[in-house]
Amino acid sequence: MTLRLALLAFLLATAAHSADDAPSLVKYRQTVMKSIGAHMTAMSLVVKKRVTRRTQLAAHAESIHALSGDIATLFPQGTDSTKVATAALPAVWSQPDKFAAAAKALERESAKLAEVARGTDAAAFDVQFTKVSDACNSCHKTFRERESE
After folding, report:
1. Which string of DSSP letters, residue by residue, matches the chain?
2. Across all residues in the chain, what is the average pLDDT?
3. Could you give the C-alpha distances from 41 to 53, 98, 111, in angstroms and in order?
4. CB neighbours of 21 closer than 8 A, spacing ≥ 6?
5. Structural domains of the chain, ranges and CATH numbers in brackets
C-alpha cells in the first residue's frame, strides 16, 4: 500500500509540474506584464493630470506590487525566444542575478508606491510613481526587445 501511495504521489507531482508548458507560461507572464502596464497607464494619466480621479490609485499601486512579487520566477529556462515567441532578450537567462535584481527593484519601489498611495500626499505619490516607472524602463532597456514603431 505504501508503494502505491508513493507512486501516486510521484505521478501527481509529475503531472502538476508538466502543466506549465512553455507556450502557456509565456502567455501567462505576458498577461501579467500587460496587466502591470495597464495599471501603470491608468496611474500615469492621473500623474500627468489628464485625469483627476485619484481615488483608485491605491488599488492600482497595490495590484502592481502584488504582481511584481514573483516576476523573476516567470522566466524559467525553456521559455526563451529559441523555444517560444517572446520579447524577452537572452540576457534574462544569461544574467539571471542582474535580472532578479531588476525585478526586485520593481517589487521594492512598488511597495513604496502602494504605501504612499494609501496617504493623501499627491506630490509624494507622483514622485514615487516616477521611481516605479524608472524601474520598469530600466529592466525593459536591458531585458526586453524593443517594440517596433
Report:
1. -HHHHHHHHHHHHHHHHHTS-HHHHHHHHHHHHHHHHHHHHHHHHHHTTS----TTHHHHHHHHHHHHTTGGGG--TT-STTTS---B-THHHHSHHHHHHHHHHHHHHHHHHHHHHTSS-HHHHHHHHHHHHHHHHHHHHHHBPPPP-
2. 90
3. 13, 26, 18
4. none
5. 21-143 (1.20.120.10)
Give me the amino acid identity at 58.
Answer: A
Chain segment 68-85, per-residue pLDDT in tens:
999 999 999 999 999 999
Q: Are 109 and 132 in contact (CB under 8 A)?
A: yes
Residue 4 has pLDDT above 80, yes or no: no
pLDDT in tens, 43-59: 999 999 999 999 999 99
pLDDT at position 114 is 98
Neighbours of 65 (CB within 10 A): 23
Residues facing 144 on adjacent strands: 88
Which residues share a beta bridge with 88?
Answer: 144
Q: Report the half-sphere exposure of 47 (CA within 13 A, side-chain side).
A: 22
